[in-house]
Amino acid sequence: MDFSEYFRIVNLVVAVIMILGGIIQFFPIGFKSVIIGIYVMLFGAITGLLEFQIPPHVSRYASFLFSFLGRGIFYIFIGCIILDEGFLAISAGSIVGLVGVIYAILEFIPSIEPPANMREADAGWGAEQV
């Protein structure tokens, strides 16, 4: 069974939550919180854009985003960054982190295939053209 559309929806929802989590990071305004917020919003935008188009440099330099385990660990990392004081930050960080844990578990369930955009970009380790 192909779950590609479901994974696309989940990834887009996570991308929106990341962007909202980045906005939440701005408050209270401080240098550190603004920098973290910008990075989290940038990662959210990249995550969302990967569902529509995969630039060649991304598949080469961020190949971890094209496996369940790599994307799961990335989501857990971003979820931990989003976690902060306040209900919204805790909710956003927990949702992103939970999706990351689920993705990491899916790596070890062979009956569930990665979504189409992950399969197309995955050329395997060391597949760079010289």
Describe this structure in words.
With about 130 residues, the protein is mainly alpha-helical. About 70% of the residues lie in helices and about 0% in strands. The protein is built from 6 helices and no strands. α1 packs parallel to α4 and α4 runs antiparallel to α5. The protein is globular and about 45 Å long. The N and C termini lie far apart (about 35 Å). The C terminus is likely disordered.
The run of helices and strands is HHHHHH
User: What fraction strand?
Assistant: under 5%
Rg for CA atoms: 15 Å
Query: What shape does the CA trace take?
Result: globular
State the low-pLDDT regions, or none.
Answer: 125-130
Q: What about the largest sheet?
A: none
Which structural class matches the secondary elements? mainly alpha
Concise summary:
The chain is mainly α.
Label this structure with key terms.
single chain; 130 residues; mainly alpha; globular; disordered C terminus
Topology (SSEs and partners):
Layout: H1 4-25, H2 31-49, H3 56-61, H4 68-82, H5 87-106, H6 116-121
